Every structure is written in C-alpha cells, then in structure tokens.
C-alpha cells in the first residue's frame, strides 16, 4: 500500500487534480471575458515562454501596438483606438495566456514529481510493482491534451490575423470544447484518485442514461461556443421567438457553413437543444426519484436538473439584456458548472448499485 491508504487510492493526487480543474474553470471564464471584450487578437504572436513577460517599456508597448495595427481587426473595428485602450484589451488576452501557462506548470510539475517519488497509486502483482494503474496513463493523456490545447489556441488566433476581424467560430468552439473536455477529465480522474478503483457497476440502462445526459450537456456547450464565435447572442434578443419568428431568416446560400457561421441558425440550434436538454434532464431526474435509487443518485439527478433550469434561465436573461459582460461571463461559468455536475453524476452512477427500495416504480 502507498502512504495514503489503498494502492489504487491517493487523496493527495485527487486534491492536485481538483486544484488543476479549478484553474481550468478560471481559464474558461477568463476566456469568455476575453472574447466578450474583443481582446483575443490583441497579442499577434505566440511565444510560449517569453510571451509570459508583458511589455515593460514604452518602446515595448509601441511595438506591440504597431503589430496589432497591422491586422484587419484594428483597421475595420478599432481604427483610431488609443494606446491606453489597446492596453485594456491586451491585458485580458495576456491574463488568458498566463493562466494557460499556469495550468501547464500546475499539472506537469506535480505529475512528474508524483512519478519520481512513486506517489501515484500503482497496482501490485505477485509482490512486485507491475504496470502503472489507469491513473498514470489518464494523467499522461490529460497532459498531452493540455499541450494540444495550447496549439489549438494559437491555431484559433491565426484565423483572425489576416482575413477576418475575429476568430473563426468553429476554431473557437474546438478550443472551448477541448478545455471543457480537459476540465471534465480532471474531475473524473480526481474522483477516481480520491475513492480508488471500483469494480462493481450499476445497471447498463442507468449508466447509458447518465452518459447520454453528459453528452447532451457537452453538445450544448459546443453549440454555445458557435453562438459566441458568430456573435449571435447580440442579435435576435427577444424570447421565446426570434425577431417575432420561430426561426429568423437563414443565409442558406452558405451551405454547410450556415451551421457554423449563420447567426440566426446557430442561435436557433442553441435554443432548441436547450429545450431538448431541459426535457431530457428533467425526465431523467423524475425517473431516478420515482425509482428511489440508492446511494443518493436521485438527489444527484435532481441537482443536475436544477442546474440545467438555472442555466437556461440565465441564458434567457443574458440574451434579452444583449450579453452584458458580467452576465456573459456568468453564463459561461454556469455551463462549466453544469458539465461538472453531469460528470459527477455519471461517475456516481457507474460506481453505484442502484436498487429499488420498493418492488417497482411507484
């Protein structure tokens, strides 16, 4: 056994992973604010190491500003902005990238330390330390995804440096989606480290239902990313209709790109999927409660359903107020919270043995 208890369990590893998840959560929120303030293209170079140092002299600031003036966003959106106004958007993007670097350091350095000092849980076999457990390879995958996220972030930025005045919606959505995938992976792996491996499994039906619910939440986050990337939250701000219609006019001439770029269509898809998610999440919670599942799963299901309703209400309030900064940031944070709750719900379902306290549904 390791110094923390069972060979497949480590509270220290779990706490480390939860802290990393909290930093990723902050990163997601800051990323949303960076987008809403139009700050994402203010730094036109990618310097993974030296970029952590901001401009320190007047000459440095002048150089950074001149590089920003060379991209279309300045000429078509922010022409004539002052240096102080440029600094206002620069600091948001710089903070966004700084937190990204912090995540890398906060994950990679302890991970290698845990490996070096053999603190990651390992499984013994015939008295010898055999292959590392699932925790080690899961952490390695998360580390690789973190590195990929940095590359995707720069790939996203490059889409707005030459021809566009903003980043491509599909690239922003991929960037957001991977951040949320890493966030959920950190939470799941942290729970595994905290509780240790569990070989019992709940009935397949409940596991599938919880997995579908989590998948639906993730899809809704991606659809929200497309809305953000297309700036679709700033138009059709009435509800439940869109400018008095169920679906505002769509530029179908764009073909398949309409699903990614058309403001009316991406907002419509985000709305419709929200309704589907609300109905499905509510039905899941009601059924869980009717069957009185053991291990608190009924309560967990209701918490997820309640979070879905609160997030939907927040989305409507954000829309009809034309996405003020604080509401937009709160709505993005809410999406991450709902994803976290749905992730925890699936983890609980897969590790529990739901049973009927009665002979059948009441």
Protein traits:
362 residues; mainly alpha; two-stranded antiparallel ribbon; 11 helices; 66% helix; 2% strand; flat
Give a description of the structure.
A hairpin with a 2-residue loop joins strand 1 and strand 2. The longest helix is centred in the first third of the chain and has 34 residues, at 83-116. With 362 residues, the chain is mainly α. A two-stranded antiparallel ribbon has the order 1-2. It has helices spanning 11-36, 58-69, 72-76, 83-116, 134-158, 169-195, 204-229, 258-261, 263-290, 297-320, 325-351; strands spanning 122-125, 128-132. The model is unreliable at 1-5, 123-132 and 356-362 (pLDDT under 50). It is 66% helix and 2% strand.
What layout of secondary structure does this protein have?
Elements: H1 11-36, H2 58-69, H3 72-76, H4 83-116, E1 122-125, E2 128-132, H5 134-158, H6 169-195, H7 204-229, H8 258-261, H9 263-290, H10 297-320, H11 325-351
Antiparallel strand pairs: 1-2
Helix pairs in contact: 1-4, 1-6, 1-11, 4-5, 5-6, 6-7, 6-11, 7-9, 7-11, 9-10, 10-11
């Amino acid at each position: 056994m390791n110094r923390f208890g069972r060979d497949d369990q480590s509270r220290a590893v779990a706490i480390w992973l939860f802290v990393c998840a909290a930093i990723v959560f902050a990163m997601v929120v800051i990323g949303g604010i960076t987008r809403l303030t139009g700050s994402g293209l203010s730094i036109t170079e990618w310097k993974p190491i030296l970029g952590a140092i901001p401009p320190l002299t007047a000459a440095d600031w002048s150089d950074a500003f001149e590089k920003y003036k060379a991209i279309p966003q300045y000429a078509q959106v922010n022409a004539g902005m002052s240096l102080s106004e440029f600094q206002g958007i620069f600091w948001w993007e710089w903070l966004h990238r700084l937190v990204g670097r912090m995540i890398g350091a906060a994950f990679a350095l302890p991970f290698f330390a845990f490996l070096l000092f053999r603190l990651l849980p390992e499984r013994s076999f015939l008295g010898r330390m055999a292959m590392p457990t699932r925790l080690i390879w899961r952490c390695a995958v998360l580390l690789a995804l973190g590195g990929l996220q940095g590359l995707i972030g720069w790939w996203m930025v490059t889409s707005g440096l030459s021809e566009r005045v903003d980043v491509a919606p599909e690239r922003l959505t991929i960037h957001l989606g991977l951040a949320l995938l890493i966030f959920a992976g950190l939470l799941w792996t942290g729970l595994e480290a905290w509780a240790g491996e569990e070989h019992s499994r709940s009935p397949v039906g409940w596991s599938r239902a919880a997995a579908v619910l989590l998948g639906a939440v993730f899809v809704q986050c991606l659809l929200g990313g497309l809305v953000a990337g297309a700036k679709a939250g700033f138009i059709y701000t009435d509800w439940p209709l869109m400018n008095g219609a169920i679906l505002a006019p769509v530029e179908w001439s764009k073909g398949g790109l309409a699903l990614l770029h058309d403001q009316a269509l991406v907002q419509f898809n985000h709305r419709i999927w929200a309704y589907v998610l609300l109905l499905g999440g509510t039905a899941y919670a009601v059924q869980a409660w009717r069957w009185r599942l053991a291990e608190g799963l009924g309560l967990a299901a209701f918490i997820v359903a309640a979070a879905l309703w609160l997030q939907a209400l927040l989305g409507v309030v954000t829309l009809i107020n034309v996405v003020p900064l604080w509401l937009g940031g709160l709505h993005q944070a809410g999406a991450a919270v709902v994803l976290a709750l749905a992730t925890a719900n699936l983890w609980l379902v897969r590790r529990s043995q739901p049973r009927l306290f009665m002979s059948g549904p009441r």
